[in-house]
Amino acid sequence: MPPPPLTYILNFGAADYDLTGQLVWPGAVLMNTYLSEHPETVKGRSIIELGSGIGITGILCSRFCKEVVLTDHNDEVLEIIKKNIELQSSSENAEAVLTAEKLEWGNNDHISNIMKEHPVGFDLIVGADIYILPTFLLCQSFQQSSIPCLFDTVEKFLRMQGGKCRFILAYVSRAKVMDALVLKEAEKRGMLVEEVDGTRTTISHLQGVIFSIILK
Questions:
Q1: The pTM is what?
Q2: Is the dihedral of CA 50, 107, 82, 161 positive or negative?
Q3: For residue 128, which of 28, 29, 121, 140 is within the disulfide window of CB 3.0 to 4.6 Å?
């Protein structure tokens, strides 16, 4: 018998103009489908999720792994995550220890705080549609500038376990310039990007794929 469905708070009806983290993006659907079909990917592992939003992917992971740290830079979104963690903690769904941490990519104080709390590092880094910001809110140049900060953060967490950690990224292509920038930034930092077999698909009329990223 399949486990009972997960229940979430989507938002508080907040007046925060930045709703990026309060929406369920296509990449999250792609990631969650993949993890549901391949739970062995996260089973028994410790995970940090970047740009968790309301926490759907991280909480799904908690059904199979031992620890999940959900992160976001937005304080209102973090409150939603914490409420959703409370919901899961009161159910029988979660097998893992769930926590929420503030993390702005490239912010050394935030990264250091997480490293101090989790000195042994993580087995997996997970991210779904985390590089995309709504174009009606932020200009393309700002979107592009977030990519180096993202990979700076990823690199620091990858190195915590001496290169044994892996970054699983659900990527949805929206612009060729972004596609090239993501791959270029990973290559510049000595990362190997491989497409996970069988994951390339069309979702919400966009091309999506799961990437597995490690240090060379």
A1: 0.85
A2: positive
A3: 28
